[in-house]
Amino acid sequence: MAADPQTDLTLDVIGAGPAYSDRPGSVGASYLVRDGATAIVLDLGQGSFPRLASTLEPSSIDAVLISHLHPDHFIDLVAFRHYLRWQFHPPRHVRVIAPEGLEHRIDALHDEPGFSAATLDIEPISTGVLDIDRLRVEACRVTHTADSHAFRVSGPDGIGLVYSGDCGRASDLERLIRPGDTLLSEVSFGPGPVPQDAVHLDGPAGGALAARTEVGRVLLTHLQMGFDPSATIASVADRFDGPIELVDPGARFRI
Ligand SMILES: [Zn+2]
Ligand SMILES: [Zn+2]
């Protein structure tokens, strides 16, 4: 089954969960972005592979981009690796763009050197511009782990989606955002405040960022267990008067 042809930049929310959850059906971070037949995936957290595979045939993906090396953002690459190795004869390969060290971590999990390389063609993220067929990807470093990134994805008409990854300082995202973009931002600590030892965002930080960068829309994600969705959205709306939505798996947006 090939990817459904799309005529515009679209976002499919595959997973929007944080590292743990009490919500049945919660899926780790994963976002499918398509323009025409070009498809990339931003992150592949826990439980995301089955939902991805029910949305399009995964070997048709042009590239998987991993924002940082926390397992809630990459662990289903293990399932993807097995799928490519055992579902096809000969095995298929997919391009994976990730922080340094991903291959070693996955291989170590299996205690099997070469496990990743059997089907995952892993290359390092470079900041700056990368064109993947019809999609343009720009990456920048953000405050979280020592090697964490946010991404802006745009199609031929230049309209963009900016994905924060996990991010502890909202101003890090300013260099990626253009007025009118859709901002897909983590809001781990809901209405806030963010504890001093946590490197994440809350609603007030995201709302202030959205207002000063003049984004067209805010999509909120990665809300941790125990925070109220309505209060979280309200904390963004206090600072930003455009459309705001807390996303769930299965949601689709035209960017
Ligand atoms: Zn995370
Ligand atoms: Zn993280």
Brief digest:
The chain has 255 residues and is α/β, with parallel strands linked by helices. The chain contains 6 helices and 14 strands.
Which geometry do the CA atoms define? globular
Task: Output the helix-strand order.
Answer: EEEHEHHEHEEEEEEHEHEE
| Strands in their spatial order, largest beta sheet | 6-5-4-3-2-1-14
Oligomerization state? single chain
- β-strand number: 14
In terms of structural class, how would the helical and strand content be classed?
A: alpha/beta
Beta fraction? 25-35%
Helix content: 10-25%
Q: The biggest beta sheet, please?
A: 7 strands, mixed
Tell me which ligands are bound: zinc ion
Sequence stretches where pLDDT stays below 50 over 5 or more residues? 1-6
Radius of gyration: 17 Å
Number of helices: 6
* Span of the ends, CA to CA: 24 Å
Would you tell me the overall average pLDDT?
96
Main attributes of the structure:
255 residues, 14 strands, 6 helices, seven-stranded mixed beta sheet, disordered N terminus, binds zinc ion
Explain what this protein looks like in three dimensions.
This protein has 255 residues and is of the alpha/beta class. It has six helices and 14 strands. It has helices at 48-53, 71-74, 77-86, 102-110, 203-213, 229-237, and strands spanning 10-15, 30-35, 38-42, 63-65, 94-98, 120-124, 128-132, 135-142, 148-154, 160-163, 182-186, 217-221, 244-246, 252-254. The chain has a seven-stranded mixed sheet with strand order 6-5-4-3-2-1-14. α5 (203-213) packs parallel to α6. The protein is globular, with a radius of gyration of 17 Å. The two termini are 24 Å apart. The structure holds zinc ion (2 copies).
